[in-house]
Structures are given as C-alpha cells and as structure tokens.
Amino acid sequence: MAHDENSPGGPPRAVIAASLQRERRRAGLSLAEVARRAGIAKSTLSQLESGTGNPSVETLWALSVTLDVPFAQLVEPPRPRVQIIRAGEGPAFRAERADYVATLLASSPPHTRRDIYLVSAEPGTARESDPHMPGVVEHVVLSTGRALVGIAEDPVELAPGDYVAYPGDLAHVFRALEPDTLAVLVSEHR
Amino acid sequence: MAHDENSPGGPPRAVIAASLQRERRRAGLSLAEVARRAGIAKSTLSQLESGTGNPSVETLWALSVTLDVPFAQLVEPPRPRVQIIRAGEGPAFRAERADYVATLLASSPPHTRRDIYLVSAEPGTARESDPHMPGVVEHVVLSTGRALVGIAEDPVELAPGDYVAYPGDLAHVFRALEPDTLAVLVSEHR
DNA sequence: TCGATGTGTTCGTCTTGACGAACGACTTCC
DNA sequence: GGAAGTCGTTCGTCAAGACGAACACATCGA
Known about the structure:
The structure is a homodimer. By secondary structure, the first copy, chain A, is α+β, with helices and mostly antiparallel strands. Chain A has 2 domains: about 15-75, 434 Repressor (Amino-terminal Domain), CATH 1.10.260.40; about 85-190, Jelly Rolls, CATH 2.60.120. Chain A is built from 5 helices and 11 strands; from the N terminus they run H-H-H-H-H-E-E-E-E-E-E-E-E-E-E-E. The first copy, chain A, has helices at about 15-25, 30-40, 40-50, 55-65, 70-75, and strands at about 85, 95, 100-105, 115-120, 125-130, 135-145, 145-150, 155-160, 165, 170-175, 180-190. In chain A, the strands form 3 sheets. Chain A has a 5-stranded antiparallel β-sheet with strand order 1-9-6-11-4, with no helix packed on it. The first copy, chain A, is elongated and about 50 Å long. The interface between A and B is large, with 70 and 72 residues. Strand 4 (about 115-120) of chain A pairs antiparallel with strand 3 of chain B. The structure holds a DNA duplex. Chains A, B: InterPro entries: Cro/C1-type_HTH (IPR001387), Lambda_DNA-bd_dom_sf (IPR010982), RmlC-like_jellyroll (IPR014710), RmlC_Cupin_sf (IPR011051), TransReg_Diox_bact_type (IPR050807). Chains A, B: This is Transcriptional regulator, XRE family with cupin sensor. Chains A, B: One of its GO terms (molecular function) is DNA binding. Chains A, B: It comes from Actinacidiphila paucisporea.
C-alpha cells in the first residue's frame, strides 16, 4: 500500500478502528458477540474500535478470521470520473500481430497499487458498494454476460470486452443482467 | 483468503519470522541496521525472527515500511512464481454477497506500475514474447474462448475466468485455441 | 414500575511485548 | 596475539496490551 506515504507515526490506528467497526456492523454482530467468537475480551475490542491501543498481530488476526475479512484490509484498507472503452474501439496504444491485438486500457499512475479481482455475478438485486476511501479508482473489463457497472446514480451497461473506470469513493454498483456474468476488476489506490 | 484454513492457534508466527528474515537478507541488511531504521530494538527483531513473540501492529508496520514489503506479505506466505487460480475456486481474498463474488487474484507490491491491456486473439501461430525486463510480472484473466498462456516451456491452458500470473522476464506465450478469444492482461513492473 | 436482557463503556489487575545493556561468537587489521 | 569492529542472542526492567468485572445506558415485557 500505502507505504509510500508513510504516516511516520506508524500504522493507521484510525483505519483499523474504522475497519473493525465497519466490518462488524456489516456482519450485523454486537461487539460482545464478535469478541466472544474471536476469543478476546470485549473491552479490548471496544478500545480498538475507539482507536485506542495498538493491537498485537494475534489479536487482529483473530478478528480478521472472525469477521472474515482479509488481514491486510484491516490495516491498509481500500482507499476508495467515469471512462468507457467499448470492445474493439480501443484508442490507445496497440500492439498488433497477425492473430493478436493488445489494447492498452489504462496506464498506471505513479505511486499507485492495483489489486486484481475476478468478479462473478448472477442476475438479481443490485450490488451496491459502500464508498471506499478517496482516491480509489476501479477498472472493470467485462468478460462474459452483461452488466450494469459504475456510479450508482448513473451506471453503464457493459458487453463482453467493454471497459469502464470510475471513482470508488462514491457509491457504485455491479448488477449482472445475464447469468454467468464474469468480469475482471482492478482496484487502484494510492 | 488465507483465513480459510484457520490455524486455530492464531497468526502464523513462523510465517512472520520467515518473512522478516527473508526480506531483511534480500535487502542485505543486518539485524541491527533494520532495527535501527525501523526504530525498534534489535532484541525485539531478533525475537520476531526466531518466531518468539507476538508483535504489535505498530512494530510490524514499522518493519514493513523499512523493508519496503507490503504489510500483508509479512503475514501471509509467499506466492509461487507461477500462480494459477481456476475460475470459481479462488482461494485468496473473497468478498461474497448473495449474487456477487469478488476474488482477489493479486495484490499490488509497493513501487510497482500496473498497466491494463485488453488482449484479443485468434487461433493460429503461437505468439511468443521476448523476455521483458527483470521484475516484470504479467497477470492474465481469460474472458472468452480458450488459450495457452504462461511460460513458453510450460504454458497453462486457461478457460474463461481462469487466472494465471507468471514472470515476464522469461519467454512466454499467448496462443488462442478458439476463435474470439479475449483476455485481460495486467503488466506489472517496478 | 420494575426487573431482565441487550448494548458499549470504563477501571483495576495481570500478563506480555518492547526496550537497552550486556553477552558470546565471529571477523578484520595493526 | 589482541584490540576493535561486526554479528545475533539473552536477560532484567518497564511500559502497554489484554483481560474480566463493574458500570451507565437503552430497549422490552410483565
């Protein structure tokens, strides 16, 4: 992550605090219940969620397991304009061979991390993501199916091969319109 | 993620120990020097590398910054050079909803650029790339069709949704096996 | 109204991680 | 040879994290 802009003071306790509380609420569990499942004192959890304290790895690990959240996400959370490139009309750099075309969709700005996700979705209720931290940009390339992707207020319909990028610090959606919808999502953050 | 197989005992101290020692040696630094730069006691670092103790997040963070290693990498075991994740069996980080599954395929190491390509290919002669600069890693997620991808000597057959990562500083191939083969390629370089 | 249960907080105690000095083992160099 | 410089380890001390009980507060039902 994020080591780039080291807060020299150390790890982001506020981030840990926010992550713990957010994930706990997302799971719909009480503070006491999470503490019980994780095998830690609820007083400890209370202090962590209030930003006090510097948890041991063991403690944080137990919580990440209990909350089913990747360990790293508790410490370096996703720090959450819309660009569309339709399949076949890629404008930018192309490397062409007789049977091979590679289109550059997005070049990495300096000091960014990009995590690669595979998204599998079925038609149903829209999946709305809570806004991530400012600065996050999400890139989606649709593989199969059809989907509405992008800012919650104004999503874009994607066909296979289509590409869209949008800021992740706004509420955004991924709604499959067809069965077996598959997409590659690259989450970019500073 | 790695949490799937919870070692109930807690966080992998052995993994932390190994990671710290490996990364420190890779950097060619002495134990005392790393401790000094990280602002921790060398006795503490010595104990951590020996697998004793349960470091606080603050301590581990300082070390991850000093060693320029992503925080997660200190806690989670190193990935193999060539990694394959078949569609639907993503083992790593998952965020699941009723109609939505996002699998973290690859997390970005520090100081890297990742450029996103859309690859369109037709069956025909194999497309062999000359080796790129050392340190380059390529990630491929197959969207449609079928393809042989990876190290030239030992490529992997990918189906839609499959993911493979391989070092780009070796000769590698991308050979479509079916018409209308589409893939997302993320080129990662320091 | 009054208990009963749930929430999250605060407080005293004890355990434990982090520190720094001292240590033995090992090179280098005069 | 031995003085000086590394290396990583061990040990006693102190600060801080983790614990559990007690706490204030809200909600609910008899």
